[in-house]
């Protein structure tokens, strides 16, 4: 395996990601940390809201992915899929009506993400994989005039849109969006197991293809997401395949790194970088755009 430790240093990571942005091979993987900026709940808060709806005790403390999926499974055992989607819609968008446009445009992280997606000669991100159910990123990008294709049902045609946003865990759009929900939700352990146990599952294979064909920038995802039952096998196998060529991607963490955390990421050929403040993450993303523009030669700019 190649040693990619130099990419743990921010300037090297920025330069590395800028090169793949130039080539159009940079992919964004987004977790709940990015949707929280719209006032949406994190995974634990959402699961606890669902548990309260069906009279289950709420959970406290830092739980790993498996523990949260078990907690969600207890909810799913009490309701059908239609009711689950109804509850998700209600609790995802509880605070959205209170969100002002001023607050939206003052959100530096979302603006920086949009900069990466902006069509430009320096290259731009065309593929986003979001583990979130909501449609808030699509709505935000539409404010800037982006043509967005939301993909939550396969097979799906791909065209000349500015960006494609994939929802492999399911899709529950804002009630006023005019969009319909997906017919699946990956939330509990059983739904994750069905995906893993279905040979040739289209979402599993599509996510594998995206991981194989791009360098990933993971944002808004905690360490526990690395152990997600539906994702960890993909991180492991795809990371190993490219281990002699490049890292699978760079994972921005909002916590200090420990040797145990670094080892876990290293085993999946992913470079973890600690950036604890949203403003600093925004600056990191904008520097990628800036560096990508500088990579272009004068001949390219003619």
Can you offer a commentary on this structure?
By secondary structure, the protein is an alpha/beta fold. The model has no long low-confidence stretch (mean pLDDT 91). The chain has a seven-stranded parallel sheet, sandwiched between helices. Helix 11 links the parallel strand 5 (215-219) and strand 6. It has 14 helices and seven strands.
The pLDDT mean sits at 91
Please provide the count of β strands.
Answer: 7
How large is the radius of gyration?
Answer: 19 Å
How many alpha or pi helices?
14
Strand order of the biggest β-sheet: 3-4-2-1-5-6-7
Structural class: alpha/beta
The backbone outline, from C-alpha atoms, is globular
How much beta, percentage-wise? 5-15%
The low-confidence parts are none
Question: How much helical structure, as a percent, in the residues?
Answer: 40-55%
The main β sheet shows up as: 7 strands, parallel
Q: Secondary-structure element sequence?
A: HEHHHHHHEHEEHHEHEHEHH
Distance between the termini: 40 Å
């Amino acid at each position: 395996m190649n040693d990619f430790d130099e990419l743990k240093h921010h300037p090297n990571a920025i330069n590395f990601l800028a090169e793949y942005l130039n080539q159009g091979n940079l992919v964004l993987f987004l977790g709940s940390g990015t949707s929280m900026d719209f006032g949406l709940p994190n995974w634990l808060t959402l699961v606890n809201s669902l548990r309260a709806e069906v009279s289950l005790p709420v959970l406290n403390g830092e739980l790993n992915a498996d523990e949260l999926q078990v907690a969600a499974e207890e909810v799913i055992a009490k309701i059908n899929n239609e009711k689950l989607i109804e509850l998700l819609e209600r609790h995802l968008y509880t605070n959205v009506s209170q969100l002002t446009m001023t607050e939206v445009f003052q959100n530096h992280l979302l603006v920086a993400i949009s900069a990466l997606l902006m069509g430009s000669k320096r290259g731009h991100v065309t593929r986003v994989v979001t583990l979130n159910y909501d449609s808030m990123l699509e709505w935000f990008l539409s404010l800037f005039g982006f043509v967005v294709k939301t993909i939550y049902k396969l097979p799906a045609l791909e065209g000349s849109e500015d960006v494609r946003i994939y929802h492999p865990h399911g899709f529950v759009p804002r009630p006023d969006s005019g969009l319909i929900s997906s017919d699946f939700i990956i939330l509990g352990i059983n739904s994750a197991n069905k995906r893993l146990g279905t040979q040739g599952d289209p979402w599993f294979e599509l996510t594998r293809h995206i991981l194989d064909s791009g360098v990933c920038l993971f944002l808004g995802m905690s360490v526990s997401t690395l152990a997600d039952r539906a994702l960890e096998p993909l991180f492991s196998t795809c990371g190993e395949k490219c281990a002699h060529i490049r890292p699978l991607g760079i994972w921005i963490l909002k916590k200090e790194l420990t040797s145990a955390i670094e080892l876990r990421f290293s085993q999946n050929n992913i470079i973890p970088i600690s950036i604890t403040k949203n403003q600093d993450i925004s600056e990191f993303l904008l520097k990628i755009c800036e560096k990508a523009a500088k990579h272009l030669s004068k001949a390219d700019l003619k």
